[in-house]
Here is the input.
Amino acid sequence: MKRGPIARLFLILFFAGLIATPVVMTRVSARNKTAAAHFDANSVLSRYGFYFQEVSRQAGINFVHQAPSLDPQLAPIMPEVASMGASVSIVDYDQDGWSDIYVTNSREGSKNALYHNNHDGTFTDIAPQLGIANLNEPGTGVSMGAVWGDYDNDGYPDLFLIKWGRPELFHNDHGHGFTRVSEQAGFPKWINANTAVWFDYDGDGLLDLFVGGYYNENIDLWHLKTTKIMPDSFEYAKNGGRKYLFHNLGNGKFEEVSAKLGINSRRWSLASGAADLSGTGHPDLFIANDYGVSELYVNDGKRFHEEGEQSGVGFSPKSGMNVAFGDIFNQGKYSVYVSNISEDGILIQGNNLWVPKEGISSDAPQYENMARDLGVELGGWSFGAQFGDFNNDGNLDLFLTNGYISLDRNRSYWYDFAKVAGGNSTIIGDANNWPAFDGRSLSGYQQKRVWINDGAGKFEDVAQAVGIKDVHDGRSVAVGDLWNQGVLDVVVANQNGPVLIYKNTVDPQNKWIEFQLEGTKSNRSAIGAEVSLFWNGQQQIQEVSGGSGFAAQNDLRLHFGLGKNPQIEKAVIRWPSGQIQTLDNLAPNQLYKVKEQQ
Amino acid sequence: MSHQTVAIPAQQPSGAPGWKSWLTLNNRFVPPLFITLILLLGEFTYGILESYQKTLLAIGTAILVEMILARIFVGKWPHVASAYITGISVGILLRSPAYWPYAVCAAIAITSKYVLRYKGRHLWNPSNFGICVVLFLLPASVAMLSIQWGNNMWSLLVIWLLGSVIIWRLRRFHITATYVASFLVLAVLRAWIIHQPVLAEISPITGPEYQLFIFFMITDPKTTVRSRKGQCVVAFLVAVLEMLFRFDQSVYAELYALFWVGPIAMLIEIWLDGRRKKQESTAVLVPSSGLVHP
Here is the structure.
């Protein structure tokens, strides 16, 4: 070292500055979070325009999810392998104009619940009377989720039950009961699935069904022939369950056409959604896979083409657990939110917000991940998320639930998890090689996120301030206007935990508009119909969805926030049949029931 | 990784033609080429990188800081191979959604070579030091490559074979072999003590993080002791301390073990060298005192 003491001193100061940088950045970040947590609840309404109150008890909902109990050979790692099954879907099953709630349970012998909306702020579980409660009987598998769609166009949404086990289809008998029609439909005897979505991929006016397998369908998780059932890689696994695309033949029967139409995958699917992402008028299929990349199946009207890598969403493998579509910039295009895992100092995958690129001419849509830029990247061990305008300001916000396994607060399984997950495929793929959980937590007791969209490209987490303070192991989130008051309420299903009802209170100065669509040429549930709302010089699109988020389905009614003093220009509906219908002279704070023109 | 991540023989074989010297691997481009090969294989088969930009940022920062500091404190432009390896190691191993940790980590790693010195030798393996520092101080924003690579047997074998051949030719294989053997024996011991599956304890060494660790970090000639026997002892002690960290459920046990054992071993060697030199100088003075053995 040639230089003298002054140069050396500068060098040491420079080095000290470098070392101090992480410390300073950490403190700045912590101060911002602390500041957000200290807002006075009374000022929240004026500051953010809304707040939530958890009202499940007052609403008469006391449902607590129970996790499955699988083959005893898996007992040491049961919390991990049986870590899903809590789900929620919001549906008006009896078409009385009030949203009801269906939640699933997963312990053998446990019961699912259908909470009928009593129109007075309370709900009553009527699943036993209607025949859709006792669906977790030993030997039939257990529930993982539910999606609703009127597959026979009789005006009442039918129930497809996603299971690790026998997939079930229940016909809705005009809201008075349900009839099991699984055998007639022609579904397989067993699928270990965690996701399904209703959509009319061929535009024939009949709802088709996609089902994404997780564990291999040949595995009976209660009677294992081998313990080699785990993914063969943490991020490149292709030994999961197969995919199914059931084409609705219109006579109560379905034909499985996935391979014929180009869907061949054995990735470990956890979430899926369908929307016209490529602008062809045909719904595309987006699949978020655990232990690997996401897949984007572009629908050209005849078959599907996997364009994940070309579009940008299918290159970096993560742990996909959610698919939600939202027009976050009010520019008439969907962004896609995919949740992943982030654990301080161990695994920072970050969630993905896939935003469509501008000015790209390509058959497949092109996306870039802007989760970090927009501030919605880090959400812990993230699961279900949904877009919705929670404060009716005209911009779509984002609700995220999270938390994987909350057991002993002071002991973590992360060390053992990382140890095995990074190992060779022969090690990670065998459940016998995974150390016992022994009551430890794995990313447990996590704080949820409610990111409000400022409309200028930034999201701010206000969960603590607006009343979302639970730390359950969240799985499934669904949004809908439960009390018909022009706001989006949120229902969260927690693994091994209670169903939470977050009732929303919104600044009344912020206006709204809602649409309830009914197809005629299109499927009657209008799933796949897209509403473009034009107001105050901006445009927002929303789609009636046959399933989104994680094991969830939002209310089929579409809710738009409008902000203060809105001037609504028009709403343009693009029906799945291709028909365009324009609505003029719309007024705010109204629910419009729209039937597709014959 | 240090100036030379893996050992580079002091001299080229005399009279060897240029292409032979490449084949004999006696040049300082081999380690950068090897780690670049790992990077490219990993990226094109698995997409291992957080992003090209972040990796380039780490490499660029490391080279820039090295050039500036070497120019100022050594008085000449440095060979950038070692800085390249440090930067690429940070780019591969570090995981962060932000850009700045890549630059800061690379800068800390390179600067540590110029600051944390004793008797003319730097004590820490630079990338080990840089990564450990950001992991200690910034756990909310960074993680390490641990489970974000393929779990495929073939890619593992290719890297292990290629790495072993290169390390063998560079006469550092004994370090890698000692560490791996120690790890395996201690993994079995750990499994027996804590009643866990043996394969679970062996699992980490089959992961990508270890491939970089055993071929690049622990073999770094600038931050390992000089004697062959001493190198083996240090490798063994790293494995032993790693076991203790693993009992404490430290996810990055091997990095932290090297972080502590490496500099301590260096200091002991420097102290022993000093004592030896002192004894030699004393011996040189002996004739004048008349106390001379026959």
